């Protein structure tokens, strides 16, 4: 009976120590994942800015074509394209400031 108690106590101590040591590895993994995710924000922000520039150029060309053809809906089209560019820039900035 005494041997069973000693064996059970030893098993509990070993399991407590192993779970305590395993927590450090989990914390290191979370820190590594955080560093990996935050390292993607600079290239991602630059990519969003580049997409915003391309959208702005396409929008400018479309607005110019509508303006040249005398379409009365030019101001609405210009506002929508300009709004899309502003949204891309603001969303990239907000995401960057929120996560970093």
UniProtKB/TrEMBL annotation:
Residues 1-22 form the signal peptide. This is DUF4134 domain-containing protein. The chain crosses the membrane at residues 46-65, 77-99. Keywords: Membrane, Signal, Transmembrane, Transmembrane helix. InterPro entries: DUF4134 (IPR025408). The lineage of its organism: Bacteria, Pseudomonadati, Bacteroidota, Bacteroidia, Bacteroidales. It holds the Pfam family DUF4134. It comes from the Bacteria.
